[in-house]
Structures are given as C-alpha cells and as structure tokens.
Amino acid sequence: MPRDLAARTARTDHADDTDHADHTEHTDRADRAAALGCRLRPVPRSGAHKVVVLALDGVYPFELGIPHRVLGSADGRYEVVSASVDGQSVRTDSDLTLTPGHGPEVLDEADTVVIPPYAISTASGTAPDPRALAALARVRPGTRLVSICTGAFLLAAAGLLDGRRATTHWALTDYFQELFPRVEVDAGVLFVDHGDVLTSAGAASGVDVCLHLVRQDHGSEVANHVARCCVVPPYRDGGQAQYIERPLPPASGTGTGPTRDWALQRLELPLSLGELAAQAAMSTRTFARRFQEETGLSPGRWLTQQRLRRARHLLESTDLPVERVAHEVGFATATSLRRHLAAEAGVAPSAYRRTFRAAGPAAGGDRNIRVRG
After folding, report:
1. Taking the alpha carbons of 247, 151, 126, 142 in that order, is the dihedral positive or negative?
2. Residue 160 in contact with residue 145, Cβ under 8 Å?
3. H-run or E-run covering 198
4. DSSP notation for 328-366
C-alpha cells in the first residue's frame, strides 16, 4: 500500500474509532442519566396533570403507593398528592397509621382522582363513610375517576358506575353485584376503561391501570420508560384474565408458555391452532384447553390481542402505512386491522395514530381513547 494511502487509512480508522467511542460515551451518559432519573423524584412540570389519591379508613398501603410510584415516574408529567376525607390521619388495614398531606379540599382542583382499595366489611360495603361520599362530591365534572380493587365500592355507592361495566377483585365480585345490581360486573378482566371512569382489579392491576393512564396520556415510549423505572411489565391488556382461583390443571412438565414466546416472534405469520399445538407437542384439543387455563383466553383471541398490541405500538412510533402495519403484525389485510382495532379501541388506525401523535409529550393535553376490556 502506498505510504500516503496508508496514512489516510490510518487517520480514517482513528476517526471512526473516535466517533464510535464518542457515541458509546454519549450512550453511556444517556443511560446513566435515565437511571438517575428513575431514582430521583422529578419536580412536577408547570401545568402538570394533577392526580389526587383519596385514602379512606382501612386503606391498603401497597396500593395507596402505586399512583405515586407509577405516575410519579413519568418525568414530572403528573403531580401526585394524597388526601384524606377530613385532613386527618388514616388507619390502614395493617398496623400502620398514615397522614396524607392534604384534606378533601384538594379534590376541587384534581384532574384525576384515584380511589385505592380499603378494607370492606358488611357495614362499609352497604354504607360507606358519609365523609368519603361528601369528599367525592367535590370532584369537578369531567375529572377522570380511577378505582383500584375495592375502591370500586365507593364509586358504585356514589352511583357513578350505574349502567356501566366495571370490575373489582374477583373474590368480591359476587358481593359487589349483590350490593350494586345496576352495575355490570366483569370478574374476568384486569381493568375496564370508559374514558372518564376506570375500575381495576386487585393489587398489581393497579400498576396496570396506572401504566395504561400514562400510555393513553403520553404514548407507549413514556409508558415503557415508566415501566422500566418501576421494573414491571410495560403492558398487560385490560382484557387479560384476572388470576381467578380455579382448580389447577393436571401436573405436566410442559405448558403453553414457550409456545406463546415462539408465536410472539412470528406474529407476522398466519399461525394456525394446529401449528401452535404442534410447536407445543400437544393435540389441538389439549393445547386449546391448556392455553385457556393458563391465560384465560382462547389461542385465537390471544393472538389477536398480541397483534393489536404490536399494531398500536407501530402506529404510535412509526410512519408506516396502515397496510404495512397490518402485514407486519399478521393481519391478512388493512381492513382486518381496521375492524379489530375499531372493536378494541373504538377508532380507525389513522385516527388512533393522529390522537397519539397530537397528544404526545410535546403537545401536552389529555385524551381519552375508549378501550373495551
């Protein structure tokens, strides 16, 4: 190689190495900054969406903290505060007494109100604390209401769930339905979203519904960041089955989990029940039964949900044409994607994309996409 060419090549290689090192250092700094942001509580931004968590007597401490932990990890997009019905300390269902920072007056200015679960007795179920109902009455029209687990009992007692589908912890759904016959109780879902009112099931479903709020308000990228900070799965569809107590299937060394993982890597293919069963080394009948027991869904319904989940992500994060999105996620045609998305979210793909793009972090503002559980 001529000397001058060798020198130029050496300089180019050095420049490439330097650029790579700079890029790596920049990436490392970004990762460290993101990690630090997960550990530090960000100051709420100007005009942040105000969330008030109303703690009732007998509140469950774990769920009381979920809105603070999840919504509070959204880089200052939410201001989350707690309140009691009288501004005094609240007895929990454990050997703890907590003192929220506010009284009921803070509900006057809330954009979202969250009712965490509290211990339900025969007395509190049929006649909740009148002060709790009075506090709830202070909420402005149009404020988003969210219940976790038994928090739905207060919303129902206030008449806010009449004529609507709602959920609560599966172990209490029969009792809930008996007390509130005008509510359509769905015991088999993680949460139900009517836009202005959301109800969720027990414990960890409070994480799911709060992540759902972030995703609806600010898109999947912000929700995924929040989930990573909280070390939880970024998305569980509201229609996913609660872990309802039922007889265990016969002991077996295999399950459908590996096949679900296999299918998730091949959603663009027209996967049939026979192919899935063959992958699991089961008959189609055994596979379908085992799948239903493990997920609460039929294989076909589960595949549709996973395809819609991926389609929503592509619509939010890319400019791919709807026809291409349909192909990428395994729907035979764009028409099929439109039909399924309309059934799931009540909107067409183009409208869904416009909504998320228009209400992203830069634009601010809230939106309500109706998701049928």
Report:
1. negative
2. yes
3. strand 197-200
4. HHT-SSHHHHHHHHHHHHSS-HHHHHHHHHHTSTTT---
CA angle (32 as vertex; 28, 36 as ends), nearest 5: 170
**Rounded to the nearest 10 degrees, how much is the dihedral formed by the CA atoms of 182, 186, 191, 194?**
-40
CA distance 185 to 188: 9
What the block records as the tokens of 302 is 């589960």
Long-range contacts of 125-128 (CB under 8 A, 24+ apart): 125/153, 125/175, 125/179, 126/179, 127/157, 128/56, 128/153, 128/154, 128/157
Residue 247, number of CB atoms within 10 A of its CB: 6
Task: Give the long-range contacts of residues 259-262, CB within 8 A, separation 24 or more.
Answer: 259/287, 260/295, 260/302
- Sign of the CA dihedral 222, 330, 322, 349? negative
Quickly tell me which residue has 């001529």 as its tokens.
2
Q: Give 336-349 pLDDT, tens digit per residue.
A: 999 998 887 777 89
The owner of tokens 């180019």 is: 12
Cα–Cα dist 184/197, whole Å = 14
pLDDT tens digits along 248-295:
344 444 588 899 989 999 999 999 999 999 999 999 999 999 898 888
AA letter at 190:
L
Q: Which of 219, 232, 198 is nearest to 112 (CA)?
A: 198
Spatial distance between the Cα atoms of 80 and 108, rounded to a whole number of angstroms: 14
